[in-house]
Design goal:
Structural class: alpha+beta
């Protein structure tokens, strides 16, 4: 079998020739997957030179037909050979597979895209609601003696988002030894307990049930997102770094913003806790940091989809650090990482899409995102191919001066280990 790819970007085509049997169906599936990864939402599949198609080949067509519909895209099967058409007829799939053959339908027109300032990609926005700037609530790292420490039980309904270090349950049920990275968005709270399993667990809002957890330290905000911003890296660019995405999110009109992002990844850089901060003495020695934190040693989680909760500010503030040595923005962000799923074209309902990720995809981990400057030749950031950013403007945060201590940064050790952090 031979498969020739035509076009690029959102509209692509595949000319297939030969036998589409069980052996070659995987090859076609890989080509279709590659088209979707590259951002195609309108794919034409020409089968005029296909002499045979088996049940395995039919399955690939059906799977990707459904997948394209799920992302508001189109898969057109055009000019099937007579032998292919006969098999479609005998299997009763002609109406399903060929309904778009003569269709003039196109992918939903999108708002005009604007180029980023540096020419690295394009973006457009959907206005959602007009909402007044909100405020953050902080849970500072405890400084009382261990036996006197109290950890608030914080609830996270769908109207609240947050991130930090926490654990499901209360202190009496063992939360003290389980504190790990968490984030909450769209009524779902996910946490990676700092035990030998390090397996993400999550709770979903359902009726009267609202997720809650014990918080060691973190940030939360009641957020009604004012706009959705869609971005996509240019074809000649590998991906947009986190600092560039943050610059898009905060725009020109805000000094600070709460950000919820759903994005397809190029790769991620970050860390997770391996040992609860309540366990033993904490120091800033290299040995202690390596024992307590699991760092990505290289860009990881390529071609995944992630949900990011974060805060971006033009000024230093509690819990916030420079996004990059050369960036003017400060921020802090956690990412829940899932197996790959393409983002649908057009406007996204974040609640239903995020819930579908938990229901249908594998969750890998929760990362505290960092930039890595251990390589003196370059600084590495998390990068994203395309995504959807939901923005909630914030009132001026409690700005820190060079001498003003403010609340302790609960994850300062993360920044120390890598040079700096988000």
């Amino acid at each position: 079998m031979e498969c020739i790819r035509k076009g690029s970007g959102k509209v692509q085509g595949l000319d297939v020739s030969g036998k589409l049997d069980a052996y070659w169906s995987d090859a076609l599936s890989n080509e279709l997957e590659s088209c979707v990864h590259d951002g195609a939402v309108d794919i034409t599949l020409n089968l005029s030179q296909v002499s045979f198609i088996s049940s395995a080949g039919l399955r690939v067509l059906i799977v990707y037909l459904k997948q394209m519909r799920a992302i508001n895209g189109i898969l057109r099967i055009t000019e099937p050979s007579q032998k292919v058409r006969d098999i479609f007829d005998l299997s009763g799939l002609s109406e399903l597979l060929l309904q778009a053959e003569e269709s003039k339908d196109t992918v939903e027109d999108l708002p005009p895209a604007r180029m980023l300032d540096d020419g690295s990609g394009s973006y457009y926005t959907f206005e959602l609601v007009n909402d007044e700037a909100g405020e953050l609530s902080y849970t500072p790292e405890p400084d009382a003696p261990a036996h006197q420490r109290r950890f608030p039980q914080l609830s996270f309904p769908s109207s609240r988002f947050g991130f930090g270090i926490g654990a499901f349950g209360d202190v009496e049920s063992g939360a003290r030894t389980q504190f790990g990275e968490f984030l909450s968005a769209a009524g779902i709270t996910v946490c990676v307990p700092s035990d030998e399993r390090a397996h993400p667990d999550y709770m979903i809002e359902d009726g009267v049930f609202v997720p809650s957890l014990s918080v060691y330290s973190g940030i939360a905000a009641d957020a009604v997102f004012a706009r959705e911003l869609r971005f996509e890296a240019a074809q000649h660019v590998r991906g947009l770094p986190l600092s560039a995405v943050a610059r898009l999110a905060i725009g020109e009109e805000h000094s600070a913003a709460a950000v919820l992002m759903i994005a397809e990844t190029v790769a991620l850089i970050g860390t997770t806790l391996k040992i609860s901060p309540e366990e033993g003495l904490r120091t800033f020695s290299v040995e202690d940091i390596r024992g307590r934190y699991s760092f990505t040693t290289e860009p990881s989680y390529q071609h995944c989809v992630c949900v990011v909760s974060g805060v971006v500010s033009r000024h230093p503030a509690p819990y916030l650090r420079p996004l990059h040595p050369e960036a003017e923005l400060h921020g802090h962000a956690h990412a829940a990482v899932f197996s790959y799923r393409p983002l649908p074209a057009g406007q996204i309902d974040p609640h239903s899409f995020i819930r579908s990720l938990y229901d249908e995809e594998r969750i890998h981990t929760v990362l505290h995102l960092l930039y890595d400057d251990r390589n003196t030749l370059s600084s590495v950031e998390s990068e994203f191919v395309r995504g959807s950013i939901f923005v909630h403007p914030l009132r001026d945060l409690q700005v820190l001066s060079d001498t003003e201590p403010g609340p302790q940064d609960a994850e300062q050790t993360d920044a120390t280990a890598s040079g700096s952090g988000v």
